[in-house]
Amino acid sequence: MPDTIPAGTRGTLVTFTVIRKAPAAFAADGVYAVAVVDLAGGRRVIGRVEPFEPAPPLGAPVKLARWARETPVFTPA
Question: Which fold has domain 10-76?
Answer without folding.
Answer: OB fold (Dihydrolipoamide Acetyltransferase, E2P) (2.40.50)
